[in-house]
């Protein structure tokens, strides 16, 4: 399948925002990484970097949302799936030398107080993850309120652990967060 210029720009933006942040990435760097003419960014994204950022957030968020199904659905239970999720995140951090954590959190931390369009895009993505995980917890027997609260806690645990791991260049925070997350899920399930 041929990758379009627009898709190369989105992919380059996603990689650069994930690794360098939104503010640390310039449009010239994005088009250079995408091997695209400079004017093509504004052709596909007339709103410039903000419009591209919004598309990158939503596209990346949807891709990461697929991980919920890929990890939770084949697992024998939600406790196992939760542990698998944290272990997979740990493996990705190690394999990428701590460069590839969550692209949504990286941007959210930068723009939440300064750019409402990007803030809303990150909020929408996080909500989609919470809903998807919460649905699996409900299917496992948790009440709707408990499932949602537990899903919010897991997203918070993994996102916070990513920040600590990248800062310390250690996987210890993800290991500890994963242990706490699996214990939380186990405790929230009906007896």
Short recap of the structure:
The chain is mainly α.
Summarize the SSE layout with pairings.
Layout: H1 5-20, H2 27-34, H3 38-44, H4 48-72, H5 78-95, H6 103-111, H7 116-139, H8 144-168, H9 172-188
Helix pairs in contact: 1-2, 1-4, 1-6, 4-7, 5-8, 5-9, 6-7, 7-8, 8-9
Distinct helical segment count: 9
Terminal Cα separation, in Å?
49 Å
Alpha carbon gyration radius: 18 Å
Helical/strand content category: mainly alpha
- Count all strands and give the number: 0
- Percent helix, as a range, is over 70%
SSE succession: HHHHHHHHH
Mean pLDDT: 94
What is the 3D form? elongated
Biggest β-sheet strands, sense, barrel: none
Unreliable residue runs: none
Instruction: Give the amount of beta strand, in percent.
Output: under 5%
Question: In words, what does this structure look like?
Answer:
Helices cover 78% and strands 0% of the residues. It is mainly alpha-helical. Helix 1 (5-20) crosses helix 2 (27-34) and helix 5 packs antiparallel against helix 9 (172-188). The mean pLDDT is 94.
Jot down its keywords:
191 residues, mainly alpha, 9 helices, 78% helix, elongated
């Amino acid at each position: 399948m041929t990758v379009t210029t627009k898709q190369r720009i989105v992919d380059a933006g996603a990689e650069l925002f994930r690794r360098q942040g939104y503010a640390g990435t310039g449009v010239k760097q994005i088009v250079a990484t995408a091997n695209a003419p400079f004017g093509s960014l504004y052709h596909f994204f007339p709103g410039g970097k903000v419009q591209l950022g919004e598309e990158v957030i939503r596209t990346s968020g949807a891709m990461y949302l697929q991980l919920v199904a890929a990890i939770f659905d084949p697992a024998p239970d939600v406790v196992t799936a939760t542990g698998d999720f944290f272990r997979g995140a740990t493996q990705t951090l190690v394999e990428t030398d701590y460069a590839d954590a969550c692209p949504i959190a990286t941007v959210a931390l930068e723009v939440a107080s300064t750019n409402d369009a990007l803030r809303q895009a990150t909020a929408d993505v996080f909500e989609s993850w919470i809903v998807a995980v919460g649905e699996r917890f409900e299917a496992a027997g948790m009440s709707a309120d408990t499932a949602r609260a537990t899903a919010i806690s897991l997203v918070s645990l993994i996102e916070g652990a990513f920040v600590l791991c990248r800062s310390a260049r250690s996987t210890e925070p993800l290991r500890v967060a994963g242990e706490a997350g699996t214990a939380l899920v186990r405790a929230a399930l009906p007896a």
